[in-house]
Specification:
Helix content is 56%, strand content 25%. It is α+β, with helices and mostly antiparallel strands and 180 residues long. A four-stranded antiparallel β-sheet has the order 1-2-4-3.
Length: 180
């Protein structure tokens, strides 16, 4: 092969490689990125559709559960809500045999939310079985309550007399709630 032909061939190959490189930068890379993003979007949409189908299948049970939750919230009247909560603590302590040393109710009002919470700090005393039953009764009551924290401490050296400090919040739903 002649030197001139070889130079022309190398120039043509160099130009061809440069064109392919430019095409890769301009067209292929952006298209590949777009395709990957589209694939991720399609995968996310498929997951959402699957989750939506599962929700539709469980609609009746979810609506029943939500209805049950709404009917078991505390009343919108602050004094009635506190009275219901105190009465519930009295019932739970009688059923379990735990002694209530103190209950401190406090309302948590957030104007940006469509609900209120009645936070109660409760101090109960008894042995391990009594306090376990007390907690069990609270957890299994249908009232809309949440145990935020529980702290157990011993009142004697043998550990037979225990004190249970609870932070419990009760839920009040509704858009026309009076301020406590």
């Amino acid at each position: 092969m002649k030197i001139e032909n070889r130079q022309q061939l190398l120039m043509a190959l160099t130009v061809g490689v440069a064109v392919l490189y430019a095409a890769d930068l301009v067209a292929i890379e952006p298209l590949a990125g777009w395709w990957k993003a589209r694939a991720k979007t399609v995968a996310a949409l498929r997951t959402q559709v699957h989750d939506g189908r599962l929700l539709v299948q469980r609609e009746a049970s979810l609506r029943n559960r939500w209805s049950n939750m709404r009917t078991n919230t505390l009343p919108a009247n602050p004094s009635l809500a506190e009275q219901q909560m105190l009465k519930a603590f009295d019932n739970w302590s009688r059923e379990s045999g735990a002694g209530i040393n103190g209950i401190t109710p406090q309302w948590n009002v957030d104007p940006s939310q469509d609900y209120l919470t009645l936070n109660c700090r409760v101090e109960a005393a008894g042995d391990l079985g009594t306090l376990s039953r007390f907690l069990y009764d609270i957890e299994n009551d249908p009232m809309a309550l949440k145990i935020e924290s529980a702290e157990l401490s011993s009142r004697d050296a043998a550990g037979q007399q225990l004190t249970l400090d609870l932070q419990i919040s009760g839920l009040v739903l509704g858009s026309q709630m009076p301020s406590p």
